[in-house]
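Quick one: structure tokens for this chain, please?
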Amino acid sequence: IEQQITLARRHLPRGYSRQLPRLADGPSAGFPRIYDLALELISHMDGRVDSDNATQFIAAYQTVEPLKLGELWAFPIMLQLALLENLRRVGVRIAQRREERDAAIIWADRMLEAAETEPKQLIQLLAEFAHADVPLTAPFVEEFYDRLQAQGPAMAFVQTWVEQKLLEQGVTAAGLSEAAGRTAAANQISIANSIGSLRFIGAMDWKQYVESLSVVEQILREDPMEKYASQDFATRDRYRHVIEDVARRSTCSEMAVAREAVALAQAAAAQQGTHDRSAHVGYYLIDQGRPHLERAVDCRLSWKSRVSRMGWHLRLPLYLGPILLLTLLATAAVLTLLGLDTGGVDADDWRIWLLALPLVIGASALAVPLVNQLVTLVLQPHALPRLDFSTGIPDIHRTIVIVPTLLTKPQDVDALLEAMEIRYLGNRDPNLFFALLTDFADAPEQTLPDDEALLDYARAAVEALNATYREDRPCVFYLFHRPRVWNPFERVWMGYERKRGKLEQFNARLRGEAQTAFSDIVGDPSIFKSIQYVITLDTDTQLPRDAARTLVGNLAHPLNRPVYDAAKGRIVEGYAILQPRASISLTSAGQSHFARLFAGDSGLDPYTREVSDVYQDVFGEGSFIGKGIYDVDAFRQAVDGRFPENLILSHDLLESGYARSALVTDVELIEEHPASIAIEASRRHRWIRGDWQLAGWLLPRVPGPSNGARAKRQANPLSALSLWKLFDNLRRSLVPPALLALLAGGWLLGPGPGWLWTLLVVAVILLPSLLSAAIELVRKPEER
């Protein structure tokens, strides 16, 4: 019972009941209507609540007056409170009966003591008893008689007197004893029913209960695109919350708002067809159609909402403005501490100008994370809408999981096949396939002596793996291998354009093109044209259980479907790429002192549903880091033939600028952390080199496809946000050398004391992390 009280306090947010309709008159006037319904149900069923009577009771009430969504969600908590109240009432009755029995024990003991020690005092004690006007209740009389039974003639006299008083009240001692037994039995049944009902509340699937009884839910299921019912619960619940919010701000009921949303979708379906995103009811709830719905129901927006809507169109300036301001303020603060404003340091001092650029870069390294933390405090994260494919991926969304990699030695092939098998075992689905996209390592010749044997080994391993799971499906695993081609720029034989070229040619092969790009293909080619999505992973990336189905459900949602704008040359609505959140594996996080120090949180977080990401929360776009899912046709339309050869090493971010990506924060991929600083340095060098290769895309005109000749320049199609992401990557790559320059220049050249420059560097490194840790501590959920 104490646990249930604690849970009720935790699950009933402060002020929540104020949003619920209240009774205007009657015995429960002022109480929430749903609480009175819970009391009625419990009183009629004597505390015995189950799925059937709870459903029938609310359904019967709603034939007269539909309940609001908030009331339906509050019903289990109100039942909990009502059951606790029922237990309290029974407990009070039991306590009162105990007090009456205790009083009977006291009087009986006094009379027995008087009869034993001084019988003459018994008459006086009986007179005192009569004068005290003790209530002769059933518990009192039953206990009193039990104590005095067979205690001699004196006590028989007392019993006779009490029996006479009972006859004057129209009852007998035997009758009261029977009534006491019935009351005790009734209390016992009521307590048992109430405790059993509390257990039922904890075990009941209230999500299904609310959806089965919600009138709003039934209206939304009339979605003309017929996708509403196919969504997962979180997405449907998000839609319903919007209905509640709009209804609160308008004069319309929740049912009226839901009907209007469906009507708008039906009108769009009649004009644009049911495949257009505006024909989905969610377009008017969580997408660009919401203002249309709000105008249709005369929704009154608060000043806060109006300001927020106005700022939504100026998101990038409102985001970059504080960063620039904080950067300038931090720079000015350092110059003030150096004494520039008081004449302590001359403005013409060449040392100031020498350290000016490193100082600005260092200040920006402090400003950007601070602004990001502020944004995540203000904005709540929202998971992308998702279709529910928990029972299986439909045929029209057939997907293949690929790992672009190199064939180097048989041991590596064994490791690749083992990892692919593990991914399959955690993500079994009839419409999910797995493949290795392989190249040989770079070589001075097109073929090496061991190439054929190594390829034969890989081919045989994939065929053996297919044979192992032949009972599941004839062909689950695939191998796509490319031959080396001559690269005159690198002056080496290698796979065409490495990973980028591998994906490009693989996508083309799925659509019946690039027939000669892969020299060896193991697997059934008949499925190629039916593949709609591709999940691409790195060699060391783990795909958690059922993560593939979840990602496919996200990308298949009608509001996430990509829309290509030929005039702008990129995806402008929806997404062609989805990037899951990447986490560090538990094993790699503890493999070395370096990994333990820098890996941070590792493994899967069971408490986290979605996390904040500035770009996703503010701009509705994420950044692709090379591990995620993409739509084959939309991806090809956005990026094929757009980039020159031999120029782009780090292509992921650039591709997301053309194909538009989103971050799926409630799905995690697990990857390995470098075990040593040497591996980390090599990886960062590769990333930074790739970032600087993309610097040309910050210009108004960018390199186009080269096709073996000199790349012609064309208009830059990237959005302002994508340009900022490219620039920010370059800025981040300059932060470590800038901080080093500040330390070296501050201690060796001045101006000002060396400790000031050291303090600045320490602040840049530690302050964002300390602020983040403080925020996490303040916002830590009670469950953790």
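The chain has a mean pLDDT of 89.
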